[in-house]
UniProtKB/TrEMBL annotation:
GO MF annotations in UniProt: voltage-gated monoatomic anion channel activity
Chain spans, region Disordered: 1-51
Membrane-topology annotation of the record: Multi-pass membrane protein
Keyword Transmembrane attached: yes
Protein name per UniProt: S-type anion channel SLAH3
Subcellular location as annotated: Cell membrane; Endomembrane system
GO biological process, one term: intracellular monoatomic ion homeostasis
Domain of life from the UniProt record: Eukaryota
Pfam family, any one: SLAC1
Main location: membrane
Keyword Transport on entry: yes
């Protein structure tokens, strides 16, 4: 750099060019991408330029070629503080692999040189992570994604498609191709001991149901038995929804019939009951029937194996008549304002009776076949449900104006009722005795005689001797069950309680029909008493059901009766003993030989 002289024209003394023009430092060639030039002020050395001159010293800084020294701060701007520059140089020499070297002896410049690559140590610096809250949220999202992509395969043996449809939907949604294998790895440690149980595809025999189950509806597992489904978890709702839920629909729809008869009959005119009660109950019955039917239809679609096991259950199979009986009740209990304007078509009766006929052919045929499902072995009070449809269908057909069809079903129902009645009274040694907790279903003894008396009166047009005989039989059975107060102690709530609401309503309706024929104070009092008992029973059961469903939330527990194994699994001790006996028998045979 050239210094400016004074403006005077006189001769100037000779100047020290070395001081005015210091030699620039000689630097080794460095590639441009790895080098930057920063101009720094001169260091405080004894050799200073004279006053009036300003010297500028260049400084070369070589940036490291590796990320090992990225954490070392480097000067990036021109500064006038020499102390800061010295502190920066000392810090670089102490922390980084750079070396502070002086250039030529006559130079005051400072140069940072890059050390040899062989002597350099590359150390990775830790990357600062997110806060713990964000890590927890990420872990939760990861677990939720993993749970959504891996399906619980413990219930595949009861699913209609065994989980294939769910995996196809997941694959279409962008899931991995190896979902099935990954699901096995992830769920395997969860199911653990249940891995050998999910292969149950065959239905247990009738003897197996009686050997493995106990309780009021054969729905409680014996301590020595095992399940094919996990017992320590709550099953899907559809698996816990039983066919016996249609008993609720039967109870409410039978009340609609009862209040229709009360509003239209002469012996109960003094009660001044309006037909709107029948309309409200009928609408509620239709709503309940639609809800229960839709729910159980979903169970048929998604868990058909569970429905199949219910059908082979010796008690649950009788509740498969309940949906069609409820439809018959709804047809009989249609509000009078509707039937006055238009009569029900005849084809409706044939549509409703066709499924009942198919079920009757199947069930009654098993009773007579002499096999494992012969009547002497599987007879129980719930078998009355399979007979009740014949009499209710006969009543509806006679109300519509049909004749031959109602007589046919009345005859079939009467013949099988006599056989069932005698079988249940005998209690043969081959018949499995049910516990006393099933006593609500014992009121089904009353249903068939009461409904048959009304059905025969509709067929003949009057309440004649046959109707009276069946009515008296029903009243006697009603009284014999009512006086046994011990039956009402020591049992827990169950959906089976709804089974005797329909017989009570049928008995009250039959009493009103009988009071029409025999009109006196006693028959009127009997009508009022039976109607009050039936109504209060339904109201109490409805309130109890609501409490268990929405407050206690135990209305639908795990349906144990559909999850028993095909055969009893021997405990480990029994297996070891049997293996030891086999080995001893083999050794004994070898010794004799």
């Amino acid at each position: 750099m050239v210094a400016n002289s004074s403006k005077s024209g006189g001769a100037m003394p000779p100047r020290n060019t070395e001081l005015a023009h210091p030699k620039p430092p000689v630097h080794p060639p460095v590639p441009p991408p790895r080098r930057s030039e920063v101009v720094l002020p001169p260091l405080e050395t004894p050799l200073q330029p004279p006053a009036g001159f300003r010297a500028v010293q260049p400084m070369s800084i070589s940036l490291p070629a590796s990320p090992g020294s990225f954490g070392v701060p480097t000067p990036t701007a021109v500064t006038t503080d020499s102390a800061d520059l010295r502190r920066q140089a000392m810090a670089n020499a102490a922390r980084g692999p750079h070396r502070l070297a002086a250039q030529d002896k006559g130079s005051n410049s400072v140069r940072f040189t890059q050390p040899d690559r062989e002597a350099m140590m590359f150390r990775s610096q830790p990357i600062p992570g997110p806060p713990p809250a964000r890590l927890a949220s990420r872990a939760g999202r990861a677990r939720s994604r993993a749970g959504a992509m891996h399906w619980d395969r413990r219930y595949d043996s009861f699913k209609t498609w065994s989980g294939k449809l769910e995996r196809q939907i997941t694959h279409l949604a962008g899931g991995p191709d190896g979902l099935e294998d990954d699901g096995e790895d992830d769920v395997g440690d969860v199911v653990g001991s249940h891995s050998h149980r999910t292969c149950a595809t065959s239905v247990p025999e009738v003897d197996r149901f009686y050997a493995a189950l106990e309780g009021p509806e054969l729905d409680q597992l014996k301590p020595s038995e095992d399940l094919v489904l996990p017992s320590d978890a709550t099953w899907p709702f559809l698996l816990r929804f039983p066919i016996s839920a249609f008993g609720i629909c039967m109870g409410v729809s039978s009340q609609a019939i009862l209040w229709k008869v009360i509003a239209l009959s002469v012996p109960t005119e003094f009660l001044h009951v309006t037909a709107k009660v029948n309309l409200v109950l009928w609408c509620v019955s239709v709503a309940l029937m639609c809800a229960v039917s839709a729910t159980y239809s979903c169970k048929v679609v998604f868990f058909f194996e569970a429905v199949r096991r219910e059908y082979y259950h010796p008690i649950r199979v009788n509740f498969f008549f309940a949906p069609w009986i409820t439809c018959l009740y709804l047809a009989i209990g249609v509000p009078h304002a509707v039937t006055r304007a238009t009569r029900l078509p005849h084809w409706l009766w044939y549509v409703l009776m066709a499924p009942l006929l198919c079920l009757a052919l199947k069930i009654y045929g098993q009773w007579m076949s002499g096999g494992q499902r012969r009547l002497s072995k599987v007879a129980n009070p719930s078998n009355h449900l399979s007979l009740l449809g014949n009499f209710v269908g006969a009543q509806l057909g006679a109300t519509m104006g049909l004749r031959e069809g109602p007589i046919f079903f009345f005859a079939v129902g009467l013949a099988h009722y006599v056989v069932l009645f005698v079988t249940l009274y005998q209690r043969l040694p081959t018949n499995e005795t049910l516990p006393k907790e099933l006593h609500p279903v014992f009121f089904l003894f009353v249903a068939a005689p009461s409904v048959s008396s009304v059905a025969w009166s509709k067929i003949t047009g009057e309440f004649e001797h046959i109707s009276k005989v069946t009515f008296f039989v029903g009243m006697f059975l009603y009284a014999s069950l009512g006086v046994r107060i011990n039956f009402f102690r020591g049992f827990r709530f169950s959906l089976a309680w709804w089974a005797y609401t329909s017989p009570m309503a049928g008995a009250a309706a039959a009493a009103i029909q009988y009071s029409t024929e025999v009109d006196n104070a006693f028959t009127k009092a009997l009508c009022v008493a039976l109607s009050a008992v039936a109504t209060l029973t339904v109201a109490a059961l409805l309130a109890t059901t609501m409490v268990h469903a929405f407050v206690l939330r135990n209305l639908f527990p795990n349906d144990i009766c559909i999850a028993i194994s095909e055969r009893k699994v021997k405990p480990i001790m029994e297996l070891q003993e049997s293996d030891g006996n086999d080995i001893e028998a083999t050794d004994a045979g070898a010794t004799e030989a």
